[in-house]
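Long-time lurker, first post. I've been practising inverse folding by hand and with some scripts of my own, and I keep getting stuck on stretches where the structure tokens seem ambiguous. Below is the full token string for one chain I'm working on. Before anyone asks, I'm not after the true native sequence, just a reasonable design that respects the backbone. If someone could post their per-position residues I'd love to compare against what I wrote down in my notebook.
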């Protein structure tokens, strides 16, 4: 009897061990394994290097118009997308008389002072973000740098497409010394200096 009792304990103990081991083993579905192996593709970006004193990266597929016909400004670079209302324009202009910083710029421009202004940073420089309740809505991010007024004008769309694109582009915005000889106002307009940098990456 003692022998059979001990044998029963051994059998039940082994069964319990197998049950616990099986219950504690994680089950990986084939679908989850396949999804984890799928690489994440980062869209290609191109870099626009403007002699007016800035560089900015933008998604491949956007249409860039550097408005050579505009001879009144250092830069007038417009980004649009097929089938997407709205867009982004980067402006570089002479500083208006009486303007010393973005705060005084907003006060002097009635269309900007009607909006909501917030402190921000663009290209590592202090600036202002102005939200305009126009139709369509607009967002303007500007700074005074190297004796010129720089600002990015975003015409927003209902689907927030341009908000996402602008946020990404503004992170890449950098200032550089203005080449006034290559691009003076009221003269030749912008030169095509797009570097066409291919920044596509695949992350495993």
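-- Answer (accepted) --
I ran through it position by position. Result:
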């Amino acid at each position: 009897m003692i022998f059979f009792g001990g044998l029963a304990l051994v059998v039940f103990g082994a069964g319990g061990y197998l049950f616990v081991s099986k219950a504690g083993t994680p089950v990986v579905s084939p679908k989850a394994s396949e999804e984890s192996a799928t690489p994440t593709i980062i869209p290609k970006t191109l870099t626009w290097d403007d002699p007016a004193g800035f560089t900015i990266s933008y998604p491949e597929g956007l249409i860039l118009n550097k408005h050579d016909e505009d001879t009144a400004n250092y830069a007038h670079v417009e980004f649009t997308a097929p089938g997407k209302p709205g867009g982004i324009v980067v402006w570089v202009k002479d500083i208006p008389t009486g303007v010393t910083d973005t705060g005084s710029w907003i006060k002097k421009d009635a269309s900007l002072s009607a909006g909501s202004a917030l402190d921000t940073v663009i290209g590592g420089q202090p600036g202002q973000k102005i939200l305009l309740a126009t139709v369509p809505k607009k967002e303007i991010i500007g700074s005074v740098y190297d004796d010129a007024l720089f600002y990015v004008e975003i015409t927003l769309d209902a689907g927030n497409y341009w908000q996402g694109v602008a946020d990404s582009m503004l992170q890449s915005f950098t200032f550089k010394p203005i080449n006034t000889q290559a691009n003076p106002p009221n003269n030749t307009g912008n030169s095509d200096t797009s570097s066409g940098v291919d920044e596509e990456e695949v992350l495993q």
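A couple of notes from the structure itself: The CA atoms of residues 23 and 37 lie 26 Å apart. The chain has two domains: 2-36, 44-196. Happy to go over any region you disagree with.
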